[in-house]
Amino acid sequence: YRIRSNQSLDNILFLINFVKNVEPGSTCAVFGLGAVGLAAVMGCKDAGAKRIIAVDINSEKAEKAKAFGATDFVNPIYHNISINQVLVEMTNGGVDYSLERVGKVEVMRSALESCIKGWGVSVIVGWTDVYSITVKPLNLLCGRTWKGCMFGGKIFPLGFKSKDDCNWYICHSLKCFILMGIVSLLFLFCSIRTVISLSPE
Q1: What's the domain range around 54?
Q2: Which residues form a coiled coil (predicted)?
Q3: 21, 61: one domain
Q4: Is the residue at 9 inside a domain?
Q5: What is the tens place of the pLDDT at every residue in 78-119?
């Protein structure tokens, strides 16, 4: 993809196409609403998903998720049962597709267990090489499919209608010397995409 000379580098974003197999009329769940998670929500919408459930522990991301196409938002903190049980009850059996981009093995397992038995597909996108993951064999023997996705496969530029649409992704713009501010945003889970300027001006 060639970047046009008149494009702002602050507003160049790409949609990772790991939802190309989502079928029209299907039900999807996206775990984690960072830039990749929101791209997944948008991809599910473009694929024609009937219901898109966005899952995140930060309720402030609900508005953005719905702006990108989510039909529902769920914060696991506000439920007394596991998030996979919540989604199974919401969808009367489980979602057709779940996408995990948090990078925690507990969330990966919950995403799998949120899928409907028989044909549900769960895709791991979040990265971790620290912990191992364990699941009960029955969770796969019942017909679910579990797969991973690195770098998203096909990548193409997002078709935003205006700069304002693109700015939905960008929450903060910081100078590179504000290191502690950048780190704090990561630990507070309050940033979707932060633009870091290397210019001293």
Answers
A1: 14-155
A2: none
A3: yes
A4: no
A5: 999 999 999 999 999 999 999 998 989 999 999 999 999 999
